[in-house]
Write a structure and sequence with these properties.
heterodimer; A: 160 residues; mainly alpha; Four Helix Bundle (Hemerythrin (Met), subunit A); 2 domains; 6 helices; B: 258 residues; Fumarate Reductase Cytochrome B subunit; two-stranded antiparallel ribbon; 8 helices; 55% helix; 2% strand; elongated
Chain lengths: 160, 258
Amino acid sequence: MRKSSRTRTSLLIAAVVAVVAPLGIIAAHDENATGIYKTRHDAYHKLGDAFKTIRDQVKSGSPDLAAIRSAADVVNETSVNQFNWFPAGSGPAPGVKTRAKAEIWSRPQDFEAAQKLFADQAKKFHTVVAGNDVAAISAQFAELGKSCKNCHETFRTKED
Amino acid sequence: MAGWKGGKSQEIVLLPDHRPISTLSPSFHPSAFPSFPMPSVQIWDMPVRLVHWLMVALVGISWWTAEIGELQYHRYSGYTLLGLLVFRVYWGFAGSSTARFASFVKGPRAVLAYLRQLPERVADHSPAAPGHNPLGALSVMALLVLLITQVALGLFAVDVDGIESGPLSHLVSFDTGRACAELHEDVFNVLLTFIALHVAAVLFYLLYKRDNLIAAMVHGRRKIRDEAAAPHVRISLVRLAIGVALAAAAAWWIANRG
């Protein structure tokens, strides 16, 4: 390697590092939620993890049914516990980072209906995954996903 | 003399008695006089220009589809961008002279020298910089690196619900996929900053230096004072075909993972 091209290469590397390094710092932060905010945030995070597991397995040609079943347990458990995660006073407030919208408390019946739809679909999914019918699992997983979206559309703020 | 126009062929300028003007002085050539129209020569090959404008369109489409939550179209846009990036990097080694990284990426001395003459309020028609100037080269490389980083992060990104995800996200954990998604957003903001800088620089050339780089990126030609020093913008169709095949294969392979 000639000297000039070596200088050029190291300059390029320096440029890449200069651009990418600060991003690591930006990404490292996480919200410091406490109390019920933290409880439900962590639980929904676990739910997202479970959803990814199911999605990856359904997408793959030969799904690992055991992995889907244990993820379905998490989904089912979350769908039962979620009814306790939105007590009055746990909505958006100054200094709190939450995507829960005030509509949750201003339209309690609608919110409960949305929660119930998710719980019902989660239960059905839990039943379907006990069997070995991958097509049925896949179809019910789509229904389950719709029940998530249904609630998020009205009661969760868009990501900024 | 009125008959002389800038052009690729050397036209013979005739005197009123129909003798060629060169008979007055054998060394005469119109380009020796700055007031003469300068010949317009090709500096960008077709693939460079096409890829440039397709990238502009696809960055816009990717932005818009992400904003409105159309993630399937967002992924298609990303796969196409991936193909274009594969092609552009390949073309940086196999393309025409001005498309090649080796021809325009310069060391710090050249960048500093270029910076010193930047305030001069004239369009640079000197043959030393027929394509990217040394400063513009840094901008090109920054944008390419950012776009590659951005597309690569998107491949592994997972949304907060674990539902929408990039085509290779099954290879990483939920937390890693989430980190990729956060970085995907941060890198986009950095990318926007560099795009703004790029556009500002091009406008600076247009308005301050009276040098229309935008038109040059559209039709590929630029006025060069000394036609003999013009770059040889030749492309090999075989190499072009290989590049297109590589790009298509990369985009196709990724699309079938998603």
